[in-house]
Design goal:
- This protein is an alpha/beta fold.
- It has one domain: Rossmann fold, CATH 3.40.50.2020.
- The protein has 3 helices and 10 strands; from the N terminus they run ββαβαβββαββββ.
- It has a 6-stranded mixed beta sheet, with helices on both faces. A 4-stranded antiparallel beta sheet has the order 1-2-10-9.
- Strand 3, helix 2 and strand 4 form a beta-alpha-beta unit.
- The longest helix has 18 residues.
- It is globular.
- The protein starts with a strand and ends with a strand.
- It binds guanosine-5'-monophosphate.
- Guanosine-5'-monophosphate binds next to strand 4, strand 6, helix 3 and strand 9.
């Protein structure tokens, strides 16, 4: 098992590149089946989900649209609690079949605060696809339709996820030692 350093902290391999990509392909196949003929709009939440969004999107076998938004609630290893939108939505969601792409759902607060803003625009349907879910950490229960991996309540980096800005380029997902 590889141990790496990001800033001052040590992390060990938790999910290999192969394991991640296999699961992303399964999620993409499930979404392609569920949304056949429906042309969904994916809304990927920056920055953490960019890699997951790219891999998920390119495995789709249906027509689909994609856009990105930016929310923020984390500083270092702790959720700051505040959720702000710094890149807004350009698309009008009325009547659309929307799928949110998240890297990780931890307490659920980020999406809990953000979903009403999307619902307000009256999409036809709204589902969430998250690569990682820390179900033990749930404080704001959410209906998560597509989950890659349910993981323990430990800080992770890699495959788009950072620790204070670093680690996003790692192909695997690493867990804090
Ligand atoms: P929540 O609002 O569900 O508590 O947290 C969601 C956001 O917190 C995620 O989109 C992500 O940015 C960040 N986050 C939560 N857990 C982790 C983690 O283990 N590692 C990293 N890098 N970010 C996390």
């Amino acid at each position: 098992m590889a141990v790496i350093k990001v800033h001052d902290k040590s992390f060990e391999t938790y999910l290999s590149e192969e394991t991640i990509l296999r699961r992303v392909k399964e999620l993409s196949a499930a979404i392609s089946k569920d949304y056949a003929g429906r042309r969904p709009l994916f809304i990927a939440i920056l920055n953490g989900s960019f890699m997951f969004a790219a891999d998920l999107f390119k495995q789709l076998t249906i027509e689909a649209e994609l856009c990105f938004i930016k929310l923020a609630s984390y500083r270092g290893m702790k959720s700051s609690g505040n959720v702000v939108t710094s890149i807004g939505l350009e698309d009008d969601l009325f009547g659309k079949e929307v799928i949110i792409i998240e890297d990780i759902v931890d307490t659920g607060k980020t999406l809990h605060n953000f979903l009403p803003k999307l619902q307000h625009q009256q999409p036809k349907t709204l589902r969430i696809a998250t690569l990682l879910h820390k179900s033990e950490a749930t404080e704001y229960p959410l209906d998560l339709h597509y989950i890659g991996f349910d993981i323990p309540n430990k800080f992770v980096v890699g495959y788009g996820l950072d620790y204070d800005g670093l680690g996003r380029n790692l192909k695997e997902i690493y867990q804090l030692v």
